[in-house]
Amino acid sequence: MEENEKMSNREEIFSKAVRAGKRTYFFDVKSTKGDEKYITITESKRRFSNDQDRFFYEKHKIFLYKEDFEKFSNALKGALEFIETGVYPEGYFDKEEKEEKVDDENVDKWFDDLEKQS
Known about the structure:
The protein has helices at 2-11, 69-85, 104-117; strands at residues 12-20, 23-31, 37-49, 54-65. By secondary structure, the protein is an alpha+beta fold. It has one domain (2-117): Nuclear Transport Factor 2, Chain: A, CATH 3.10.450. Strands 1-2-3-4 form a four-stranded antiparallel sheet. Strand 2 (23-31) and strand 3 form a beta hairpin. The protein is extended, with a radius of gyration of 18 Å. The model is unreliable at 5-9 (pLDDT under 50).
């Protein structure tokens, strides 16, 4: 039983819910077996199923990894500033940064490890 408690404590470290109309956003900080932190952002919407004649929650989730925090944060700040001011962020029209080559095999293995923790 003690091992199960350690697993659940390690998995979810922090959680914050934001209610926004008919949607709820969940910001969860979790940890891998190797103690690497990552964020999941979940959008949850209440829907009605006519087939089943009941309500259900439709969820969409993204995973944000430590190596992408700064890029994600800068992009979000830029988008919010554009909405507020109508001014494009500095460097917006410059060529996109070249994306790093992704090793699909390692990514798949990492996701498999995450599923085993759940």
